[in-house]
């Protein structure tokens, strides 16, 4: 007999409209430090900084909240970045244009443009330089194989390109076209050299190009083999020639009378530029600062002058090769003071913030910014000692590897101020330091956040970091360290390192990136914070559970230590993992901030997998792979311990740090797979009546009305075996004041869910607090098992939540009692929502009978990874909001369901299914937003709410040169192409072939783009991922196809024709 289940006909248009007002998916902003940075640039006039990455991302930063993000179409490394300078100082032009060079020798011009009052970053032009220009003969023109250096000429709209072959080409920046007739080849330079230098050897690649500070018609060219030439473009000859060692970098002194060069042997030389002397000149000073032993190359050097005397010489590298060749150092030398800044990651680039106004005689550097592979460090050069300036953004989230994260919404102002105060006491700034963050370009247009949000990250070194996640800039507030409570070997190692440290070179440790953990057992696994009582719990890898309380002043006190045996003397289990951490005894000094009160040690010392805190009852619950426990931290006594191990759960005794492999488990799984394959084969053989089934299906389709939507076919889910390994892992814990014993009396309860689909509900006897007192009486808390539920398919229980009579989740501790939230409905019947990896199910209380369910795995073929109850406010009506269940699956999709009906509302593709770490790190907020790691150092922020969106809205004051034409004529809108790591936006990409821009017919430059395109919720994954898919389907014409299929000769001919057309009418391409 066949059964048919029908849904109602069609969709409710009113409900669909309401969904659009409640839900919208957007990837809004990326928090943290860019992954794998490769290039750096700074605009001294606009005070903005650009960072390029190895994945082709371009990120521009200004004042806090001012961020622009772009992404090259090709996943190539950004090797160089240059902001276009103003063409005339009298006009005070600030272009806001950026030229980038990729490792494939392609050039890209970016513009910051304003649309609808907000600025955003667009790619205006791109130019792939051909590998050969001209003929292959020996007498042909120079070839352009690979670009090594780019120089933007301030006096003209032109760029000089140095190559590996030693040639210098010139490019028109406004069109990104090569300027014919001005190429400077190495042969022409060699003809200007003395005869004794021309010995048949090549000059080598162009290592550095610098504009002449006195005469804009001259450029300084540095070749890798040591030749320095001041070339006069007007006279086509060399004015000055300097002969040195193998070259690394060059820098002018501000007056233009002196230049400094750095070399591969760890030396630098100072040259005096005097046009009246002979063409060939020797250095006035040549020194090896860290000699006399062989040293590594000085890769970059800067010279900055000061009015008070004593210029700055700042260089990277140059360390003694044998003893300190593995150090990453930047040396700062002023007069007799030398400081060697020692960093923990590779140096990418650095710059100084100094005066660039022509009327100023001296540089007067204010700050030094050093971009490292893992962090950005800024030092104040105006204060003795050169202290580090705290960064309001770009903080290295991964200073120690992130192991867990949590979000706290609507933080009270009092608690916020106390956390900020504790953080300021951790890193006090010198009183003489008046320098604030020097990168202050632009202004943020975003409104002040209506509520404060905290993002807590637990780390491998036992620290918990507090971040201000209220706005676009993720700012560090406070760092909590738990390592001081335990005895480790880190102090001994530090003392040995300091004892062997020499006075020379004068090293100074700078930066906070420290990827090495002294003891992996210190790693933080779970963290929970009560925002009303300023109490929190931190649980770690070795079974340590810390209860802490915020204190505004430093104190010295002992920490109470208790242990709980979760095995309950069960026989046959032997712990093979790591040992427990040994706590320090006696009174210990604690700085202002969160100070530990109680330490609970789980036995065996396995990693804590779940934790929850109820400050109103002074209870903390925690779970491991062996069971769960309940602890009364007010009386400092255990309440409950329950072992959840299965007799065959031997893998749980090995621990995460053990290398023991269970051969018994592997054999058991192999035989089980063989057995299942045989059973499934028999089932397939038994289904010989497949033709009859097909006929029945055709009859059913004919009998069913076509305008009625049928329920989708559900997949058959096989129940999991009870003896699977790690079945006793506790996945979630939950406190609730609800009905468990009977429908007339409610009281405190504790719920626990395990990996085998078991749910334990305990009724708690908690002494009621006396009126007017926050603490409850000193009486024993008792726990009695009230209910035990076993899910049919034994799927792991991911989350548990109790719903009141109105179907709303219960408020947090102290929210209802202090009138901070609406009191729950205790009159109607409560229900409990149990989310497993395969389905969501609502049970009535206290009978625990099934009310409704949704089988996610059966319908969608995916498994639940993260769930959270969130409130979605309407954009049309400020007073309307719905509480829904947000779910992230193992495929990276986000689903939203109504509560308590569990009806699917919307679903979006959020994270790549291959990004396992990103899915595992996802955390939802209470207001429909979320965070997940797109790299070890970056959080991607996304929003499911149509109203609650945190995104960068900013503007930049730009003034274009008079008569300068914007390069936006070659822009073509890329359909829903996202920015660097998934941030929604329109990246306008050019269509070019071998350097010939392809203008397209589109809207004018000032025509605003459609609102639907700007706010489209399409998802493009992170630029850090290797398989970013770009949708190139659009207005593809026959001419576009011909451009792609054209030969190199046709491309070169088109290039020449375009250059000639540009010479005849330069404005014809502007539409």
TrEMBL record:
<dbReference type="GO" id="GO:0030866">
    <property type="term" value="P:cortical actin cytoskeleton organization"/>
</dbReference>
<dbReference type="GO" id="GO:0030864">
    <property type="term" value="C:cortical actin cytoskeleton"/>
</dbReference>
<dbReference type="Pfam" id="PF08366">
    <property type="entry name" value="LLGL"/>
</dbReference>
<keyword id="KW-0268">Exocytosis</keyword>
<dbReference type="InterPro" id="IPR015943">
    <property type="entry name" value="WD40/YVTN_repeat-like_dom_sf"/>
</dbReference>
<dbReference type="GO" id="GO:0006893">
    <property type="term" value="P:Golgi to plasma membrane transport"/>
</dbReference>
<dbReference type="InterPro" id="IPR013577">
    <property type="entry name" value="LLGL2"/>
</dbReference>
<dbReference type="GO" id="GO:0005886">
    <property type="term" value="C:plasma membrane"/>
</dbReference>
<feature type="domain" description="Lethal giant larvae homologue 2">
    <location>
        <begin position="287"/>
        <end position="387"/>
    </location>
</feature>
<feature type="compositionally biased region" description="Polar residues">
    <location>
        <begin position="971"/>
        <end position="982"/>
    </location>
</feature>
<feature type="region of interest" description="Disordered">
    <location>
        <begin position="971"/>
        <end position="1010"/>
    </location>
</feature>
<protein>
    <submittedName>
        <fullName>Lethal(2) giant larvae protein homolog 1 isoform X2</fullName>
    </submittedName>
</protein>
<keyword id="KW-0853">WD repeat</keyword>
<dbReference type="InterPro" id="IPR036322">
    <property type="entry name" value="WD40_repeat_dom_sf"/>
</dbReference>
<dbReference type="GO" id="GO:0051294">
    <property type="term" value="P:establishment of spindle orientation"/>
</dbReference>
<keyword id="KW-0677">Repeat</keyword>
<dbReference type="InterPro" id="IPR000664">
    <property type="entry name" value="Lethal2_giant"/>
</dbReference>
<dbReference type="GO" id="GO:0032878">
    <property type="term" value="P:regulation of establishment or maintenance of cell polarity"/>
</dbReference>
<dbReference type="GO" id="GO:0005096">
    <property type="term" value="F:GTPase activator activity"/>
</dbReference>
<dbReference type="GO" id="GO:0006887">
    <property type="term" value="P:exocytosis"/>
</dbReference>
<dbReference type="GO" id="GO:0008593">
    <property type="term" value="P:regulation of Notch signaling pathway"/>
</dbReference>
<feature type="compositionally biased region" description="Polar residues">
    <location>
        <begin position="993"/>
        <end position="1005"/>
    </location>
</feature>
<comment type="similarity">
    <text>Belongs to the WD repeat L(2)GL family.</text>
</comment>
<feature type="repeat" description="WD">
    <location>
        <begin position="454"/>
        <end position="468"/>
    </location>
</feature>
<dbReference type="GO" id="GO:0045159">
    <property type="term" value="F:myosin II binding"/>
</dbReference>
<dbReference type="InterPro" id="IPR001680">
    <property type="entry name" value="WD40_rpt"/>
</dbReference>
């Amino acid at each position: 007999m066949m059964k048919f289940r029908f849904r109602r006909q069609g969709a409710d248009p009113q409900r669909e409209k309401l969904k659009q007002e409640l839900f919208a998916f957007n990837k809004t902003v990326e928090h943290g430090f860019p992954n794998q940075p490769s290039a750096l640039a700074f605009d001294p006039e606009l005070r903005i900084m650009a960072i390029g990455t190895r994945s082709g991302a371009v990120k521009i930063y200004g004042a806090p909240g001012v961020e622009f993000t772009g992404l090259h179409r090709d996943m190539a490394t950004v090797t160089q970045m240059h902001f276009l300078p103003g063409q005339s100082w009298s006009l005070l032009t600030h272009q806001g244009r950026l030229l980038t060079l990729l490792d494939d020798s392609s050039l890209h011009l970016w513009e910051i443009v304003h649309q609808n009052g907000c600025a955003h970053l667009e790619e205006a032009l791109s130019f792939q330089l051909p590998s050969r220009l001209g003929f292959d003969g020996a007498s042909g023109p120079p070839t352009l194989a690979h670009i090594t250096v780019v120089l933007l000429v301030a006096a003209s709209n032109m760029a000089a390109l140095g190559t590996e072959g030693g040639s210098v080409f010139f490019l028109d920046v406004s069109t990104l076209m090569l300027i014919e007739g001005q190429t400077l080849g190495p042969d022409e330079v060699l003809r200007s050299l003395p005869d004794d230098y021309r010995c048949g050897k090549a000059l080598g690649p162009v290592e550095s190009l610098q504009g002449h500070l006195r005469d804009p018609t001259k450029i300084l060219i540095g070749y890798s083999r040591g030749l320095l030439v001041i070339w006069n473009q007007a006279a086509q000859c060399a004015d000055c020639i300097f002969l040195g060692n193998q070259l690394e970098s060059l820098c002018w002194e501000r007056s233009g009378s002196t230049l400094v060069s750095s070399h591969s042997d760890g030396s630098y030389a100072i040259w005096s530029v005097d046009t009246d002397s002979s063409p060939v000149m020797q250095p006035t000073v040549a020194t090896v600062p860290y000699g006399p032993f062989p040293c590594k190359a000085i890769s970059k050097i800067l010279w900055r002058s000061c009015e008070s005397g004593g210029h700055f010489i700042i260089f990277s590298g140059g360390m003694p090769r044998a003893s300190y060749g593995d150090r990453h150092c930047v040396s700062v030398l002023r007069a007799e003071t030398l400081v060697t800044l020692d960093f923990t990651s590779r140096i990418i680039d650095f710059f100084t913030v100094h005066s660039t106004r022509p009327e100023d005689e001296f540089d007067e550097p204010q700050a030094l910014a050093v971009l490292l592979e893992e962090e950005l460090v800024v030092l104040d050069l105006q204060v003795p000692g050169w202290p580090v300036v705290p960064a309001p953004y770009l903080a290295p989230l991964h200073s120690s590897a992130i192991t867990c994260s949590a979000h706290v919404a609507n933080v009270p102002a009092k608690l916020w101020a106390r956390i900020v105060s504790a953080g300021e006491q951790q890193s006090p700034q010198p009183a003489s330091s008046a320098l604030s963050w020097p990168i202050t370009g632009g202004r943020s247009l975003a409104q002040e956040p209506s509520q404060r949000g905290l993002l807590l990250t637990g780390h491998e070194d036992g620290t918990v970091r507090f971040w201000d996640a209220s706005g676009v800039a993720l700012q560090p507030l406070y760092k909590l360290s738990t390592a001081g409570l335990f005895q480790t070997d880190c102090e001994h190692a530090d003392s040995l390192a300091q004892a062997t440290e020499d006075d020379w070179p004068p090293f100074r440790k700078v930066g906070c990136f420290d990827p090495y953990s002294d003891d992996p057992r210190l790693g933080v696994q779970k963290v929970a914070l009560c925002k009303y009582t300023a109490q929190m719990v931190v649980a770690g890898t070795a079974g340590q559970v810390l209860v802490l309380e915020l204190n505004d002043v430093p104190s010295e006190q002992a920490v109470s230590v208790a242990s709980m045996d979760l095995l309950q003397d069960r026989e046959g289990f032997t712990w093979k993992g790591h040992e427990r951490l040994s706590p320090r005894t006696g009174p210990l000094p604690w700085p202002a901030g969160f100070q530990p009160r109680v330490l609970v040690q789980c036995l065996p010392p396995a990693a804590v997998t779940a934790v929850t805190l109820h400050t109103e009852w002074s209870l903390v619950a925690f779970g491991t792979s062996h069971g769960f426990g309940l602890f009364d931290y007010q009386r400092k006594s255990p309440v409950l311990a329950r072992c959840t191990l299965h007799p065959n759960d031997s893998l749980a005794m090995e621990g995460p740090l053990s290398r023991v492999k269970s051969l018994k488990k592997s054999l058991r799984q192999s035989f089980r797979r063989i057995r299942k394959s045989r059973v499934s084969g028999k089932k397939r053989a038994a289904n010989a009546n497949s033709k009859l089934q097909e006929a029945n299906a055709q009859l059913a389709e004919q009998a069913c009305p076509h305008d009625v939507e049928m329920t989708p076919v559900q997949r058959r889910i096989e129940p999991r075996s009870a003896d699977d390994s790690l079945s006793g892992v506790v996945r979630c814990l939950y406190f609730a004041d609800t009905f468990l014993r009977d429908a007339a009396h409610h009281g405190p309860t504790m719920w626990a869910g395990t990996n085998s689909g078991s749910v334990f509900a305990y009724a708690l006897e908690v002494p009621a607090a006396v009126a007017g007192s926050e603490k409850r009486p000193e009486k024993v808390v008792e726990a009695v098992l009230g209910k035990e539920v076993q899910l049919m398919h034994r799927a792991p229980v991911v989350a548990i939540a109790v719903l009141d009579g109105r179907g709303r989740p219960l408020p947090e501790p102290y929210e209802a009692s202090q009138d901070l939230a609406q009191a729950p409905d205790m009159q109607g019947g409560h229900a409990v929502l149990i989310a497993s990896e395969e389905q969501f199910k609502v049970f009535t209380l206290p009978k625990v009978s099934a009310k409704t369910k949704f089988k996610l795995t059966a319908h969608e073929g995916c498994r639940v990874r993260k769930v959270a109850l969130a409130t979605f406010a309407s954009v049309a009506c400020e007073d309307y909001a719905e509480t829904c269940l947000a779910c992230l699956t193992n495929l990276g999709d986000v689903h939203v369901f109504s509560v308590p009906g569990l009806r699917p509302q919307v679903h979006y593709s959020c994270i790549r299914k291959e990004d396992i770490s990103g899915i595992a790190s996802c955390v939802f907020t209470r207001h429909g937003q979320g965070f997940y790691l797109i790299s070890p150092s970056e959080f991607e922020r996304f929003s499911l709410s149509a109203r609650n969106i945190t995104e960068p809205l900013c503007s930049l004051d730009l003034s274009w040169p008079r008569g300068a034409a914007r390069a936006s004529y070659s822009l073509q809108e890329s359909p829903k192409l996202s920015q660097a790591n998934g941030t929604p936006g329109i990246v306008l990409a050019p269509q070019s072939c071998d350097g010939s821009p392809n203008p397209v017919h589109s809207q004018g430059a000032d025509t605003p783009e459609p609102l639907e395109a700007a706010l489209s919720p399409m998802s493009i994954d992170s630029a850090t991922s290797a398989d970013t898919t770009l949708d190139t389907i659009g207005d593809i014409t026959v001419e576009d196809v011909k451009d792609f299929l054209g030969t190199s000769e046709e491309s070169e001919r088109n290039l020449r024709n375009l250059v000639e057309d540009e010479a005849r009418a330069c404005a014809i391409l502007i539409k």
